[in-house]
Amino acid sequence: MRNFFKILLLLLIINLLSHTQNFNEVFITKKNPILKDFPILKSRSFSRTESNSTISTTGIDTKIYGYWDYQSNGGAINYIDVNPLDPNNIHIISMISTDSTDAIAVSMSRRVVYNFSYDAGESWGIPKIVPNIRAGYPSLTAIFDLYESYIAAISSHSLLSGYLRSSLYIDDYEGAGNFLTYITPLIQTGTDNPISPAIAQTSNGNIILAASLPTTSSLGGLAVIVFNLADRTWGNWTQFETFPNHSGRIAIATGSNGYAAVIWRSNTNPDSLLLRQSTNNGLSWNQKLTIDYENENTGPCWTGFDAIYNGTDLYVTYTKSKYTMNGYSLANEVCFWKSSTMNTVTILDSNTYPYLMKSTGIDNIQTNHNFAFNFPSIGLNSTKTRIYVGVDVFIQGEVDQDGFNYSDILLFYSDDYGISWTLPQNLTRTYNVDERYVSLAPYSPNLNDSNYVYLVYQEDKIPGANFATNSSEARPVSGVKTKFLKFNTDYIPRGTASISVNTNWNMISLPIDTVIEKTSIFPDASSNAFTLGSSGGYVMENQLAVGKAYWIKFSNSSEYSLIGKKPKSLKIPVKKGWNMIGSLSEEITVDKITSSPPGIIVSKFYGYSAGYVVINILKPGKGYWVKVHSDGLLNLITK
Question: In order of start, what are the domains of the chain with their CATH numbers?
Answer without folding.
Answer: 20-49+493-637 (no CATH), 60-488 (2.120.10.10)
